[in-house]
Design the sequence.
């Protein structure tokens, strides 16, 4: 899920506010890892998950309550023992970081959303004595995110975060009615989709978080631009274009899957 883009969309309306809840530290067994996060709004909506159960339920409640008035701090931490405090059988302990965001934060959030759209990046974060978290983009390298934790503690109030698209890469060619249905089916699943079509105005106005649309005058050229381990799905409006895409995709041995919709002939 693209959390900064989701938060940006929430905060676009004047008066809008939301809380981002991040798993900050884990001791022992827990339902999620450091860097896992969710967004809760004042009207009860939730995006993402920190593992479900009572931990998530109580975190949503605290987030909503914090937005009912002016919060004493913009960010704060809460420590929970999953067994004694919440009755969960995981047996470990979790420290959660709560951050309040408002419409006035839109410019800052927009910068993070833009970095998220570009790919992987890291941030350097610090919580000051007044309960305000400052977050700066420190690295836009995809390599910085590979195989590492999403959140690294430096000390109690300084840490770094890593944001990366973690879904399996999939290149979908064609934006007809079957592709649109497929996009809806894949929306809740861990895929990072590049959706390609040559026709203007063919894509829906609103796309799932895991999908990026791309208009290309010659879609086969996109094959050289997508991730080398992408799954390739071909279902365009043109048999000739389908054939060219499949022929080109099959010459690339790194693609683990090439699929075509069509009749037996």
Sequence:
């Amino acid at each position: 899920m693209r959390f900064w883009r989701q938060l940006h969309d929430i905060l676009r309306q004047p008066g809008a506010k939301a809380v981002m809840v991040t798993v900050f530290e884990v001791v022992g067994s827990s339902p999620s890892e450091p860097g896992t996060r969710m967004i809760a709004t004042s009207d009860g909506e939730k995006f993402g998950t920190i593992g479900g159960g009572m931990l998530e339920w109580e975190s949503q409640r605290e987030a909503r309550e914090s937005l009912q008035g002016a919060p004493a701090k913009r960010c704060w931490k809460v420590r929970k023992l999953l067994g004694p405090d919440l009755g969960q059988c995981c047996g470990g302990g979790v420290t959660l970081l709560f951050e309040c965001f408002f419409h006035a934060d839109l410019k800052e959030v927009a910068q993070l959303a833009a970095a998220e759209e570009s790919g992987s990046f890291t941030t350097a974060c610090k919580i000051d004595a007044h309960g305000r978290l400052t977050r700066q983009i420190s690295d836009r390298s995809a390599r910085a995110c590979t195989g590492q934790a999403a959140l690294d503690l430096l000390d109690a109030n300084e840490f770094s975060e890593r944001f990366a698209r973690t879904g399996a890469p999939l290149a979908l060619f064609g934006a007809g009615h079957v592709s649109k249905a497929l996009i809806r089916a894949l929306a809740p699943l861990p895929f990072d989709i590049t959706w390609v079509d040559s026709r203007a105005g063919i894509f829906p106005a609103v796309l799932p978080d895991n999908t990026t649309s791309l208009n290309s005058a010659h879609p086969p050229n996109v094959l050289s631009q997508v991730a080398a381990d992408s799954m390739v799905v071909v279902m365009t409006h043109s048999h000739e274009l389908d054939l060219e895409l499949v022929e080109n995709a099959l010459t690339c041995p790194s693609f683990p899957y090439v699929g075509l919709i069509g009749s037996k002939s």
Remarks:
- The first strand starts at residue 17 and ends at 27.
- The chain is about 20% helix and 35% strand.
